[in-house]
Amino acid sequence: MFNPYKEYAMKTMMKQAAAVVALGLAAAGAQAANVLVLLSDEAVLDLKGGKQFATGFYANELMQPVKKLIDAGHTVTFATPLGRAPALDRLSVDKMHFGNDEAAMRAHLALMAQLKITAADGSPVISLARVAQQGYARYDAVFVPGGHAPMQDLVRSPQVGQLLAHFHATGKPTALVCHGPAALVAAMDQPGRFVAALEAGAPAEARQWAYAGYKMTVLSNAEEDMAQAMLGGEMKVTPQTALQNAGAVYSNGAAWAPHVVIDRELITGQNPASAVGVADALIAKLK
Prior knowledge:
Helix 2 (59-71) runs parallel beside helix 9 (275-286). This protein has helices at residues 4-15, 59-71, 102-115, 128-134, 158-170, 191-199, 221-231, 239-246, 275-286; strands at 22-24, 34-38, 44-46, 52-54, 75-80, 126-127, 141-144, 174-177, 215-216, 249-250, 260-263, 266-269. The chain contains nine helices and twelve strands. With 287 residues, the chain is an alpha/beta fold. The chain has a single domain (4-16, 31-286), classed as Class I glutamine amidotransferase (GATase) domain (Rossmann fold), CATH 3.40.50.880. Strand 11 and strand 12 form a beta hairpin. It starts with a helix and ends with a helix.
Protein backbone atom coordinates (compact mmCIF):
# COMPACT_ATOMS: atom_id res chain seq x y z
CA MET A 1 0.00 0.00 0.00
CA PHE A 2 1.31 3.44 -0.89
CA ASN A 3 2.29 5.38 2.23
CA PRO A 4 2.56 9.15 1.46
CA TYR A 5 4.42 9.90 4.69
CA LYS A 6 7.07 7.23 4.09
CA GLU A 7 7.39 8.34 0.48
CA TYR A 8 7.83 11.96 1.55
CA ALA A 9 10.41 11.06 4.18
CA MET A 10 12.43 8.97 1.72
CA LYS A 11 12.50 11.69 -0.90
CA THR A 12 13.43 14.35 1.63
CA MET A 13 16.27 12.31 3.12
CA MET A 14 17.72 11.72 -0.33
CA LYS A 15 17.73 15.42 -1.13
CA GLN A 16 18.89 16.83 2.21
CA ALA A 17 22.51 17.75 2.77
CA ALA A 18 24.17 15.68 5.48
CA ALA A 19 24.90 18.61 7.77
CA VAL A 20 24.43 18.66 11.52
CA VAL A 21 23.75 22.34 12.09
CA ALA A 22 22.41 23.41 8.72
CA LEU A 23 19.63 21.43 7.11
CA GLY A 24 18.19 22.12 3.69
CA LEU A 25 17.65 21.12 0.12
CA ALA A 26 19.39 22.31 -3.02
CA ALA A 27 16.92 23.38 -5.67
CA ALA A 28 18.22 23.30 -9.22
CA GLY A 29 18.65 26.76 -10.64
CA ALA A 30 17.49 28.46 -7.42
CA GLN A 31 19.41 30.99 -5.40
CA ALA A 32 19.57 29.23 -2.04
CA ALA A 33 19.51 31.30 1.13
CA ASN A 34 20.61 30.37 4.63
CA VAL A 35 17.77 31.11 7.03
CA LEU A 36 18.40 31.19 10.77
CA VAL A 37 15.43 29.84 12.73
CA LEU A 38 15.52 31.23 16.27
CA LEU A 39 13.66 29.38 19.02
CA SER A 40 13.43 29.63 22.78
CA ASP A 41 15.41 27.50 25.24
CA GLU A 42 12.50 27.55 27.68
CA ALA A 43 9.79 24.95 28.29
CA VAL A 44 7.93 26.84 31.05
CA LEU A 45 6.34 30.30 31.15
CA ASP A 46 6.21 32.04 34.52
CA LEU A 47 2.77 33.55 35.20
CA LYS A 48 1.52 35.96 37.83
CA GLY A 49 1.15 34.64 41.36
CA GLY A 50 3.96 32.12 41.02
CA LYS A 51 2.03 29.93 38.58
CA GLN A 52 3.67 28.26 35.60
CA PHE A 53 2.57 27.00 32.21
CA ALA A 54 4.34 24.22 30.29
CA THR A 55 5.00 25.57 26.82
CA GLY A 56 7.45 25.66 23.92
CA PHE A 57 7.06 26.34 20.19
CA TYR A 58 3.85 25.76 18.24
CA ALA A 59 4.19 22.88 15.81
CA ASN A 60 2.59 24.55 12.81
CA GLU A 61 4.24 27.92 13.44
CA LEU A 62 7.65 26.28 13.15
CA MET A 63 7.09 23.49 10.67
CA GLN A 64 4.84 25.09 8.06
CA PRO A 65 7.45 27.80 7.34
CA VAL A 66 10.39 25.38 7.71
CA LYS A 67 8.88 22.94 5.22
CA LYS A 68 8.13 25.73 2.78
CA LEU A 69 11.69 27.06 3.08
CA ILE A 70 13.21 23.61 2.54
CA ASP A 71 10.90 22.86 -0.38
CA ALA A 72 11.90 26.21 -1.93
CA GLY A 73 15.55 25.12 -1.85
CA HIS A 74 16.76 27.14 1.12
CA THR A 75 19.01 25.98 3.95
CA VAL A 76 17.67 26.15 7.50
CA THR A 77 19.83 26.49 10.61
CA PHE A 78 18.23 26.17 14.05
CA ALA A 79 19.43 28.14 17.07
CA THR A 80 18.42 29.06 20.61
CA PRO A 81 20.18 31.49 22.96
CA LEU A 82 21.89 28.67 24.88
CA GLY A 83 21.87 25.98 22.21
CA ARG A 84 19.41 23.68 23.98
CA ALA A 85 16.98 21.50 22.07
CA PRO A 86 13.70 23.45 22.13
CA ALA A 87 10.45 22.11 23.56
CA LEU A 88 7.29 21.45 21.60
CA ASP A 89 4.08 22.83 23.07
CA ARG A 90 1.98 19.67 23.14
CA LEU A 91 -1.24 21.69 22.97
CA SER A 92 -0.21 22.75 19.46
CA VAL A 93 -0.36 19.20 18.11
CA ASP A 94 -3.85 19.65 16.75
CA LYS A 95 -5.04 19.33 13.17
CA MET A 96 -6.99 22.59 13.48
CA HIS A 97 -3.64 24.39 13.06
CA PHE A 98 -3.11 22.52 9.79
CA GLY A 99 -6.40 23.38 8.12
CA ASN A 100 -8.09 20.47 9.93
CA ASP A 101 -6.02 18.19 7.70
CA GLU A 102 -4.79 15.21 9.72
CA ALA A 103 -2.51 14.04 6.92
CA ALA A 104 -0.86 17.45 6.64
CA MET A 105 -0.29 17.59 10.37
CA ARG A 106 1.32 14.15 10.40
CA ALA A 107 3.55 15.01 7.45
CA HIS A 108 4.84 18.15 9.19
CA LEU A 109 5.39 16.27 12.46
CA ALA A 110 7.26 13.56 10.57
CA LEU A 111 9.58 16.17 9.09
CA MET A 112 10.12 17.66 12.53
CA ALA A 113 11.08 14.25 13.88
CA GLN A 114 13.39 13.65 10.93
CA LEU A 115 15.21 16.93 11.55
CA LYS A 116 15.62 15.96 15.25
CA ILE A 117 14.88 19.52 16.36
CA THR A 118 13.68 18.49 19.82
CA ALA A 119 15.93 15.46 20.23
CA ALA A 120 17.81 15.22 23.51
CA ASP A 121 20.71 13.70 21.58
CA GLY A 122 21.60 14.74 18.06
CA SER A 123 19.59 17.97 17.86
CA PRO A 124 21.03 20.31 15.20
CA VAL A 125 20.35 23.39 17.36
CA ILE A 126 23.30 25.71 17.97
CA SER A 127 23.72 28.58 20.42
CA LEU A 128 23.64 32.27 19.59
CA ALA A 129 27.23 32.45 20.78
CA ARG A 130 28.07 29.99 18.01
CA VAL A 131 26.02 32.00 15.51
CA ALA A 132 27.97 35.14 16.45
CA GLN A 133 31.24 33.22 16.19
CA GLN A 134 30.33 32.06 12.69
CA GLY A 135 29.39 35.62 11.78
CA TYR A 136 25.89 36.96 11.23
CA ALA A 137 26.80 37.71 7.62
CA ARG A 138 26.48 34.03 6.67
CA TYR A 139 22.70 34.22 7.25
CA ASP A 140 20.34 35.80 4.76
CA ALA A 141 17.21 35.94 6.92
CA VAL A 142 15.94 35.11 10.38
CA PHE A 143 12.64 33.49 11.34
CA VAL A 144 11.12 33.28 14.84
CA PRO A 145 8.07 31.06 15.48
CA GLY A 146 5.71 31.46 18.38
CA GLY A 147 4.33 29.52 21.27
CA HIS A 148 4.51 31.27 24.64
CA ALA A 149 8.17 30.32 25.21
CA PRO A 150 9.69 33.49 23.62
CA MET A 151 7.98 35.51 26.37
CA GLN A 152 10.21 33.76 28.92
CA ASP A 153 13.64 34.41 27.40
CA LEU A 154 13.81 35.91 23.90
CA VAL A 155 12.14 39.20 24.88
CA ARG A 156 14.86 40.04 27.39
CA SER A 157 17.97 38.52 25.79
CA PRO A 158 20.77 40.94 24.80
CA GLN A 159 22.11 38.23 22.46
CA VAL A 160 18.78 38.10 20.65
CA GLY A 161 18.80 41.89 20.49
CA GLN A 162 22.29 41.93 18.99
CA LEU A 163 21.28 39.40 16.35
CA LEU A 164 18.09 41.25 15.39
CA ALA A 165 19.89 44.59 15.33
CA HIS A 166 22.26 43.17 12.71
CA PHE A 167 19.39 42.02 10.48
CA HIS A 168 17.68 45.38 10.94
CA ALA A 169 20.81 47.38 10.12
CA THR A 170 21.55 45.30 7.03
CA GLY A 171 17.94 45.21 5.84
CA LYS A 172 17.81 41.40 5.79
CA PRO A 173 14.37 39.76 5.95
CA THR A 174 13.19 39.23 9.52
CA ALA A 175 10.04 37.14 9.91
CA LEU A 176 8.19 36.33 13.12
CA VAL A 177 4.78 34.86 13.94
CA CYS A 178 2.29 34.77 16.85
CA HIS A 179 4.30 35.33 20.07
CA GLY A 180 7.51 35.38 18.04
CA PRO A 181 7.37 39.12 17.23
CA ALA A 182 7.69 39.84 20.97
CA ALA A 183 11.38 38.93 20.52
CA LEU A 184 11.78 42.24 18.69
CA VAL A 185 11.64 43.92 22.12
CA ALA A 186 15.15 42.59 22.73
CA ALA A 187 16.59 44.91 20.07
CA MET A 188 16.94 47.83 22.49
CA ASP A 189 19.31 48.96 25.20
CA GLN A 190 18.74 46.90 28.38
CA PRO A 191 15.70 44.88 27.25
CA GLY A 192 15.62 42.93 30.51
CA ARG A 193 15.12 46.12 32.48
CA PHE A 194 12.32 47.20 30.12
CA VAL A 195 10.47 43.87 30.38
CA ALA A 196 10.89 43.70 34.16
CA ALA A 197 9.33 47.15 34.50
CA LEU A 198 6.33 46.12 32.38
CA GLU A 199 5.88 42.94 34.40
CA ALA A 200 5.93 44.98 37.60
CA GLY A 201 3.38 47.45 36.25
CA ALA A 202 5.92 50.27 36.44
CA PRO A 203 6.82 52.88 33.80
CA ALA A 204 9.01 51.27 31.15
CA GLU A 205 11.38 53.24 28.95
CA ALA A 206 12.36 51.76 25.59
CA ARG A 207 15.89 52.96 24.93
CA GLN A 208 17.18 53.00 21.37
CA TRP A 209 14.72 50.42 20.07
CA ALA A 210 15.66 49.38 16.54
CA TYR A 211 12.04 48.94 15.43
CA ALA A 212 10.52 52.12 16.82
CA GLY A 213 7.76 53.28 14.46
CA TYR A 214 7.60 50.02 12.52
CA LYS A 215 4.21 48.61 11.60
CA MET A 216 3.81 45.11 12.99
CA THR A 217 1.46 42.58 14.50
CA VAL A 218 1.61 39.90 17.19
CA LEU A 219 -0.93 37.80 19.08
CA SER A 220 -3.53 40.33 20.19
CA ASN A 221 -4.56 41.02 23.76
CA ALA A 222 -8.06 39.87 22.81
CA GLU A 223 -6.72 36.51 21.63
CA GLU A 224 -4.52 36.26 24.72
CA ASP A 225 -7.58 36.81 26.90
CA MET A 226 -9.34 33.96 25.09
CA ALA A 227 -6.34 31.70 25.74
CA GLN A 228 -6.06 32.57 29.44
CA ALA A 229 -8.11 29.56 30.54
CA MET A 230 -5.65 27.33 28.68
CA LEU A 231 -2.74 28.92 30.56
CA GLY A 232 -4.34 28.44 33.95
CA GLY A 233 -3.24 31.91 34.98
CA GLU A 234 -2.46 35.44 33.85
CA MET A 235 0.61 36.46 31.88
CA LYS A 236 2.96 38.96 33.49
CA VAL A 237 2.93 40.97 30.26
CA THR A 238 1.36 40.28 26.88
CA PRO A 239 3.27 40.57 23.60
CA GLN A 240 0.96 43.27 22.24
CA THR A 241 1.44 45.38 25.36
CA ALA A 242 5.21 44.92 25.25
CA LEU A 243 5.51 45.93 21.61
CA GLN A 244 3.19 48.91 21.90
CA ASN A 245 5.09 50.19 24.94
CA ALA A 246 8.33 49.78 23.02
CA GLY A 247 7.04 52.02 20.23
CA ALA A 248 5.50 49.71 17.62
CA VAL A 249 2.67 50.78 15.34
CA TYR A 250 0.45 47.83 16.14
CA SER A 251 -2.07 46.29 13.76
CA ASN A 252 -4.42 43.38 14.32
CA GLY A 253 -6.97 41.50 12.27
CA ALA A 254 -9.88 39.33 13.33
CA ALA A 255 -9.23 36.90 16.17
CA TRP A 256 -7.56 33.67 15.02
CA ALA A 257 -7.73 34.68 11.34
CA PRO A 258 -4.60 35.11 9.18
CA HIS A 259 -3.09 38.59 9.41
CA VAL A 260 0.37 39.45 8.09
CA VAL A 261 2.05 42.86 8.23
CA ILE A 262 5.10 43.77 6.13
CA ASP A 263 7.13 46.92 6.83
CA ARG A 264 10.48 47.21 5.09
CA GLU A 265 12.51 44.09 5.98
CA LEU A 266 10.13 43.09 8.77
CA ILE A 267 7.40 40.45 8.34
CA THR A 268 5.07 39.69 11.25
CA GLY A 269 2.09 37.38 11.62
CA GLN A 270 -0.60 37.68 14.28
CA ASN A 271 -1.43 34.10 15.26
CA PRO A 272 -1.02 30.42 14.35
CA ALA A 273 -3.21 30.86 11.26
CA SER A 274 -0.71 33.44 9.96
CA ALA A 275 2.27 31.07 9.76
CA VAL A 276 1.78 30.13 6.10
CA GLY A 277 1.35 33.77 5.07
CA VAL A 278 4.53 34.75 6.92
CA ALA A 279 6.43 31.92 5.21
CA ASP A 280 5.18 32.95 1.77
CA ALA A 281 6.15 36.58 2.39
CA LEU A 282 9.62 35.55 3.59
CA ILE A 283 10.22 33.31 0.58
CA ALA A 284 9.13 36.12 -1.74
CA LYS A 285 11.76 38.40 -0.19
CA LEU A 286 14.45 35.74 -0.64
CA LYS A 287 13.91 35.46 -4.41
